[in-house]
Amino acid sequence: HVKSSGKGGFQLYTEELGQALRFRREIEEYLRQANFDQELYLVFQPQIDLHRQRIQAYEVLVRWHHSGQDISPNDFISIAEDMGIIRHIDRWVLKKAIEQTQSWLPDDTRLSVNISAVEFNQHDLIPYIKKTLDEYQFSAKKLELEITETALISDFKTVYTKLKELNDLGITIAIDDFGVGHSSLARLKDLPFHKLKIDRSFITEIQSDEKQKSIVKAIVGLAYYLELDTIVEGVESQQQVEILQALGCYVFQGHHFSKPLKSNEALLFSPSKFKNIILKDMPKSRNV
Ligand code: C2E
Ligand code: MG
Ligand code: MG
Ligand code: MG
């Protein structure tokens, strides 16, 4: 009896593994053939500064529509990284994001673009960014890059130099998914970046989970002493907003405020329109 159930479990396991592998192969194949201009598109999710009652930035998120279905970035970004084609995707995204928003994006609002750790470590990333900004006459002050802790673990001097150069250009740097990666505090304290993006996993149960609250409180404290800004991602309810505000957070991104929008919808989501929504639905921040 023990044997047969063990064997059944093993079969189930190999079957799942086989399925995952087939799925991966399929994605690889699709990616190799993908025509970016036809299959990729962008959505923009507002990042809201409740103190200043304005949209601070729009995060640019890539979408992939392949033969009638949408494939999630969670399912293809890491594969694209392994295949060595993430650089083409991230560069396409940067270019198109600027192209699609430059006619309406206000001067004091940034585009926040995700840069894979693999792409961040490419030698020609900065020249590409410079060239693209030049080409569209897009101010570096309007560009923010979201990188994960993984991007920061290679040789300290190389990472430092790269961040410094981006800083000097006027580009804002945020650490995405902060708290779930592998960076050391010793290293973080010496690196030039601007912002911690508190990972969604720390706020999902913040209404009831004291430990999540403690973690967010600790991150906010860390940010305060290191003179960094914070933003919370994945905010889905008013209750979360209130708890997070009490903990000292005031910049938010999440479905509670807006889902990621197509450029023509994001444009209508103007700060002045949005102001009313905030004023109507939000209590005044306790920190103002
Ligand atoms: P991320 O950078 O942490 O982006 C936030 C993710 O959370 C997005 O998922 C967004 O749609 C989702 N999200 C926003 N608000 C909420 C909310 O209230 N609740 C929940 N449950 N989710 C929310 P998405 O668009 O599926 O992207 C997943 C990940 O794929 C991103 O995580 C990012 O790491 C990566 N990604 C997306 N676009 C790009 C890109 O152009 N380049 C690179 N390198 N990675 C990208
Ligand atoms: Mg991001
Ligand atoms: Mg994130
Ligand atoms: Mg995340």
TrEMBL record:
Sorted UniProt keywords: Membrane, Transmembrane, Transmembrane helix
Domain EAL: 24-274
Protein name per UniProt: EAL domain-containing protein
Species per Swiss-Prot/TrEMBL record: Marinibactrum halimedae
Boundaries of the shown chain within the full protein: 247 to 534 of 544
